[in-house]
Give the backbone structure.
Amino acid sequence: MILYEKVSEAVFLARPNRFIAQCQLPHGDIIEVHVANTGRCQELLIRGAQVILAWASPGSKRKTPATLVAVKRGGQWINIDSQAPNRLVWSELQEGLVFPGIAGPYQGLKKEVKFENSRIDFSFRDRHGVKTWLEVKGVTLKVGERALFPDAPTLRGKRHLDELGELAQENRAAVLFVIQMEGIKTFQPNYQTHPEFAQSLKKAMEQGLEVFAWQCQVFPQGLKFHQTQRNVSLDI
């Protein structure tokens, strides 16, 4: 589970650039806050939308006093904090999280593991000593009951898949799509937005890459993996 220390609701007004949003607080003040996601989020960050701000610690030297971490759409909160998925997975791995088909408990947990010209998010060894490389991607785009990734072209994400596909031919490699919302039935790569990413995902799976898509329960104070409906079907 990921919890923010201090949060409050606000109203989204505008996004002058990828990193900054203008929001109105309940008492009327308008402030600029950091946006914890450089993706487009065009379907979420609409003027008048309810948002959650996570406030910086007192004495912080940040340029903005708070970070926009969640948006309400269709009556439900969607977490858009791009750092939350990795934080959540790391926390859960330390608490004994086990992936289907990868025997636990895990040992030798590592973050930001170097491979060729990139860094893979995590690596660990299963109960039998077999090493697994794990990349995590956060998903914030939904259409109906489908979650889609990415919401904008991602050359970095495509490169990760190409490298994971290479890894998977002689090692165990996996990618986990963390869906930062609930009410999702299927996950699908976004063919329309970035067809090359979708093609790389299919190729990597053919090379042996394991793919998981798990949805979260999101609330104003944070998020956690869904307790009863975590696994989401793949449509790739």
